Amino acid sequence: MLDIKFIRKNQKQVKKAVKNKNLSVDIDKLLLLDEEKRGLLLKIDKLRAERNEIAKVGKNKKPSKKLITQGKKIKKNILKIESKLNKIENNYNNLIYLVPNLYSNDTPIGHDESDNKIIKQYGKIPKFDFKVKNHMELGILHNIIDTKKSSIISGARFDYLFNDAVKLQFAIIQFVIDTLTDKEIIKKLANKVGNPFDKTFVPVITPVIVKSEIMKKMDRFDPLDDRYYLEQDDSLLVGSAEHALGPLHINEIIEEKNLPIRYLGYSTAFRREAGTYGKDMNGILRRHQFDKLEMESFIQPEYGLVEQNLIIAIQEYLTQQLEIPYQLVLKCTGDMGKQDFRAIDVECWMPGQNKYRETHTSDYMTDFQSRRLNTKYRTKNNKKKLVHMNDATAFAIGRILIAILENYQQKDSSIIVPKVLRKWVGKDVIKKSRKNV
Predict the structure, then answer these.
(1) Residue 134 φ then ψ, to 5°
(2) pLDDT in tens, the chain (437 residues)
(3) How many of the other CB atoms lie within 10 Å of CB of 7?
(4) Which of 69, 165, 318, 342 is the residue whose CA sits 20 to 30 A from 366?
(5) In whole angstroms, how large is the CA radius of gyration of the chain?
(6) Helix/strand/coil (H/E/C) assignment for every residue in the chain
(7) CA-closest candidate to residue 110, choices 333, 330, 329
(8) CA 56 → CA 48, 77, 149, 436, distances in Å?
């Protein structure tokens, strides 16, 4: 969340962010509640000081009936004001949690994804001399993807992966882990974007359940209708590994010498895909359950943007190594998240759909999350400051599988395995196999 002191001093800027992110937050009401809250706190402090004075008198001699009556009256007033304060604080907290982050100067002002800005394209779109198959046609032909049985067993938007699709998935995972833990690769990419830190990423397998109170601090609790909420436990299934990575340093003070801290999280993720009825129903692009590799970073404020630039460079490097055409898209205010200061997507070319589709996101959130999480660092001058946080996709497995299958398909419907994955897949070409039993 934003600091209330900042909101007081920068009301126009905050209101502009609310408007351009297509949100509805009454900033004037928030500031009024803030004023009332501070006024009541001052009254409580004053009454407590008076009560303390009475208590001092009582230590030296037996207090008079007048003092006792006065003390009881003060206590009663404090309780009355505290009751009023609690109501105001509840309204205040609910409202300030709705206030979005600001956005960077280069973020386009826009209403939805149609106003996003393409900032780079890489690779040649493949030309085929045969009728292109989509990933489901290829998946069924090779007996590596099944959505019929999963719909019977689990419902819509679930799937089974078999044989070479499984090998591809674990090859992708190993490829990402090896890349992000390679100091030479990180150093080269960091130098390329002017990031002074060549620290590698720590691989993490995260929990897939996070308490509601933590998700609220992460500002990932809403929209609740898109989450899998476990009412009995007051917890949620994660929609990404970053939901469990971001709180790793909750209520901690990190020594500056240990920054940046970089994690590579792997987990299964769950989303209801609310609001997407009828959209991308076929295939494995938009699932209720999917596997994902996610990057999370904690760094000093002055390096927050170059940290995002490094993360995007990593995303590009990984996609380039797979030799898949893609474009970088700077998301507009109306399409970016409430938490985001700057958001950039990678969209890979999907021949089966004849268009680019989002495969990666990169979100720089400044101190928006760390303020709620109370994640700070201690400077060399012994000052405590909030860290800045970035999170981003390394690979969403299902989506990159689609890109591989469709871009590497051949005329005979075989699928070439990308060179960087062959040592883990154990073959150069995926050919038609026997039907699964």
Answers:
(1) -85, 175
(2) 999 999 999 999 999 999 999 999 999 999 999 999 999 999 999 999 988 887 777 666 676 777 778 888 999 999 999 999 999 999 999 999 999 999 999 999 999 999 999 999 999 999 999 999 999 999 999 999 999 999 999 999 999 999 999 999 999 999 999 999 999 999 999 999 999 999 999 999 999 999 999 999 999 998 899 999 999 999 999 999 999 999 999 999 999 999 999 999 999 999 998 766 667 678 899 899 999 999 999 999 999 999 999 999 999 999 999 999 999 999 999 999 999 999 999 999 999 999 999 999 999 999 999 999 999 999 999 999 999 999 999 999 999 999 999 999 999 999 999 999 999 999 999 997 666 54
(3) 19
(4) 318
(5) 27
(6) CCCHHHHHHCHHHHHHHHHHCCCCCCHHHHHHHHHHHHHHHHHHHHHHHHHHHHHHHHHHCCCCHHHHHHHHHHHHHHHHHHHHHHHHHHHHHHHHCCCCCCCCCCCCCCCCHHHCEEEEEECCCCCCCCCCCCHHHHHHHCCCEECHHHHHHCCCCCCEECHHHHHHHHHHHHHHHHHHCCHHHHHHHHHHHCCCCCCCCEEEECCCEEEHHHHHHCCCCCCHHHCEEECCCCEEECCCCHHHHHHHHCCCEEEHHHCCEEEEEEEEEECCCCCCCCCCCCCCCCCCEEEEEEEEEEECHHHHHHHHHHHHHHHHHHHHHCCCCEEEEECCCCCCCCCCCEEEEEEEEECCCCEEEEEEEEEECCCHHHHHHCCEEECCCCCEEECEEEEEEEEEHHHHHHHHHHHCECCCCCEECCHHHHHHHCCCEECCCCCCC
(7) 333
(8) 12, 20, 77, 83
- Residue-range domains of the chain with CATH: 4-96 (1.10.287.40), 113-430 (3.30.930.10)
Count of CA atoms in the C-beta half-sphere (13 A) of 154: 14
Distance CA 17, CA 113 (A): 17
Query: Rounded CA gap, 364 and 44, in Å?
Result: 39
Structure tokens at 408: 């590497």
Q: Which amino acid belongs to residue 271?
A: R
Q: Going edge to edge, which strands form the sheet with 209-211?
A: 209-211, 235-237, 228-230
Q: Is the pTM of this model over 0.90?
A: yes
- Token pair, residue 85, equals 């304060």
Looking at residue 242, its amino acid is E
